[in-house]
Amino acid sequence: MIKIVFATANKNKISEIQKMIPDTIQLLGLKDIGCVEEIPETSPTIEGNASQKSFYVYNKYHINCFSDDTGLEVEALAGRPGVLSARYAGENKNAEDNINKILLEMDGITNRNARFKTIISLVIDGVEMQFEGIINGVLLTEKYGTNGFGYDSIFAPALAAGDEQNQNNNLRRKTFAEMDIAEKNIISHRAFAVNKLVEYLHHSC
Ligand code: IMP
């Protein structure tokens, strides 16, 4: 049995991926290896943060590991909030504050293009591979929907189910927060990156 750590404290994320990978791999969480400290995320890029997390675990606990890092990149804001997505409005602010900050910055801006990007960094025997997942879309001018989390209520992916119908009816696109989790998971940035990781693990483990 091969053991790989997923550098997350989120048990749901672990069991979701465990179901997708070969039976020969056992996924462990941070707690399982006694890692309870906060892992530094000080890189200026999403790629760098993902890498920093997986190498932190690999170097300190000597176990193969992968980690993920995600951000929303807005074209008219030169890619912001990007790596700062979780704390865009400040350290003690929440998702609502982050959304309000972006909507204010985007007030009057017609280029609404944005994308979510997930990077998974996998470190096996000290060698890193990265897997990228991107979903392009647009930022709406107000919130729609109550599902999901983070920026879901203002982000409408380019290829959403029901999009064609919406366009025919000259309606706006559906946001991630108006989709159920299964629908979002088919086209999400995280799903694309996870699928690439899973495919790699099936071929190499
Ligand atoms: P993390 O790297 O997965 O912790 O994501 C960093 C931040 O990006 C989160 O705190 C959210 O603000 C945002 N984010 C990540 N994934 C999503 C998503 O699927 N929908 C909306 N916001 C997201």
What does it look like?
With 205 residues, the protein is of the alpha/beta class. It has six helices and six strands, in the order βαβαβαβββααα. A six-stranded mixed β-sheet has the order 2-1-3-4-5-6. Strand 1, helix 1 and strand 2 form a beta-alpha-beta unit. The longest helix is centred in the N-terminal third of the chain and has 16 residues. The termini are close together. The model has no long low-confidence stretch (mean pLDDT 92). The structure holds inosinic acid. The site of inosinic acid (IMP) has 15 residues, from strand 3.
Strand content: 15-25%
Low-confidence stretches: none
The largest sheet is: 6 strands, mixed
Oligomer description = single chain
* Shape estimate: globular
Radius of gyration: 18 Å
Count of DSSP H/I helices: 6
Question: What is the element layout, followed by pairings?
Answer:
Layout: E1 2-6, H1 11-18, E2 25-28, H2 46-61, E3 65-74, H3 95-105, E4 113-124, E5 127-139, E6 155-157, H4 163-168, H5 181-187, H6 189-204
Parallel strand pairs: 1-2, 1-3
Antiparallel strand pairs: 3-4, 4-5, 5-6
The structure holds inosinic acid.
